[in-house]
Amino acid sequence: AYSARLADGSEKAGRIPYLAASGELRDTTVARGFSRLEVSTRIGPLLIEVGHGPGGPAADDGPTPRLILYDFRKDKYANPDEPLFWFGDLGTRFKRGQPIRYRVVYHPPRGAGAGASLPPKSVSGAARLLPRDDAQLVPVADPPELVPAPKSVAWGEGALDLTDFALAARDGQEPASTRSTHDSVFARTLGALLSDRFGELVRPRRDRRAPNPWPFEVSVSAADAPPQAEGYALRVEAYRAAVSAADESGLRHAARTLAQLASPLPDGRLVARAATIRDWPALRVRGVHLFTGGQGPELHERLLRRLLGPLKMNHLVLQTDFLKWDGHPAIHHAELGMSKDEVRRILDVARDEGVEVTPLVMSLGHMHWMFHNGQNLDLAEDPEARWAYCVTNPRSYDFIFSVYEEALELFKPRWFHIGHDEFADRGRVPFRDSSKPYTVEQLFLMDMERMVAWFKPRGVRIMMWGDMLLAPGEAPDACHAGTKEAAERKRSAIPDDVIIADWHYVATTPDKLGTVSYTHLRAHETPEHLVCRLLLE
């Protein structure tokens, strides 16, 4: 049996089964976030008190740490010969310069064990970092793993010394001579990656003389590079690297591949494995879908610099429903909203990484952002659901197009994602008297007609989710057209230049989705008309 006092003052009690219930944390948690926990054991009651600093459990310097005790006996990492319970911190985010302190007091059963008569003893300690010169600095694969895999790779002998180049980049200096804009694009991309990835692992050599001369031959040349957009050819030898690319994006990709070839040596030098590589993207559009959020743009910046750029992504769909719109301050969401200046920071980093940004501002359905703080309820199709705006009310478009004007001014995009998924999934549609003469399909097409008429003269192509164009059975999930006939009518009504983002939650291979033939609305369309949805939430 056990009893716990939680951080909010409430009490919890129960019994721990003789055998572990399962290996799942949710089934085996005894208590989490407690300030006091007492457990009955075979040798008597064990009491654990939890505080948050040197002042002890009664100290008033912050919330009680959310420590957890759970049954570890059937955990997938447990040793069956050592049946244990796990007690500690499971999930607190540590930040540099913001230490987290705990004070845990154990009260063992009185008279328990051979040391019961010994006087109480206080034990404290602190972790120390001890440098090891002979430690392996990073995992090194031979040959290096390149992601995404290039079209062709031929490994050579030897390695190119990048030490001086990496040191200059780490110190914020222009790495060697940048003789042209192309050299500068390549140098900035490579220098930022090496500095971020290896940092202080690269050390100046004791006998270091003047920095090595610029070891790269960089050119944008259709003669030497693959002719495909974003293609490049990279040849790394012991004393030089030659790069030719179809365009500046190809130069960035070559630099990113060269950074993946690099690894530090125990003496502090940084070298890149010799190789001859030719590569170009198989897909014209390679991107992800992210949300903004009210915690600032730092996560987006790190993702762009450390993940999306290095993995040669070239597109970001940024969902900005809860942006702090100038014309509608009353719908601002303090937790999910982001300022325009913060979005500009994301756009600047995306531009540096060669990533195109398409804004996504939901329309038709998923309109909870429009009704936040109880605003605009007179424009809701069903005011109780607060999900869709009323298509038959002209003032709905006064609102949405005023927001879209702000978004176009901020992003200056080539494409604009209008959402349009799961339109009638919440509430009563149709509900308003002006909407009742129409079906869901007709309301959807009426709204689509308004969208096309607004975006076309502005020279911006529409992107939209594809689930409302699919009937049940045409894909494993995300089929919200109602009937096959309705799906076909809606697909035939969508203009040729609308980009369909085909999204699915089901885990399967693309050949089993069966939606390519439905979402490619015309046989002459280019591959950019099928954009797959990847959610990073």
What is this structure, in a nutshell?
This protein is an alpha/beta fold. It is built from ten helices and 21 strands.
Would you give an account of this structure?
It is a single chain. By secondary structure, the chain is an alpha/beta fold. Helices cover 22% and strands 22% of the residues. The chain has ten helices and 21 strands. It has helices at 25-28, 163-170, 181-198, 248-261, 298-308, 340-352, 394-411, 440-455, 484-493, 516-519; strands at 2-6, 11-14, 29-32, 34-41, 44-51, 67-71, 85-89, 103-107, 152-161, 216-220, 232-236, 241-245, 262-264, 270-279, 287-291, 315-319, 356-363, 415-419, 461-465, 499-502, 530-532. Strand 18 (415-419), helix 8 (440-455) and strand 19 (461-465) form a beta-alpha-beta unit. Residues 54-62 and 520-537 have low confidence and may be disordered.
SSE diagram, text form:
Layout: E1 2-6, E2 11-14, H1 25-28, E3 29-32, E4 34-41, E5 44-51, E6 67-71, E7 85-89, E8 103-107, E9 152-161, H2 163-170, H3 181-198, E10 216-220, E11 232-236, E12 241-245, H4 248-261, E13 262-264, E14 270-279, E15 287-291, H5 298-308, E16 315-319, H6 340-352, E17 356-363, H7 394-411, E18 415-419, H8 440-455, E19 461-465, H9 484-493, E20 499-502, H10 516-519, E21 530-532
Parallel strand pairs: 10-12, 15-16, 16-17, 17-18, 18-19, 19-20, 20-21
Antiparallel strand pairs: 1-2, 1-4, 3-6, 4-5, 5-8, 6-7, 9-14, 11-12, 11-14, 13-14
Helix pairs in contact: 2-3, 3-4, 5-6
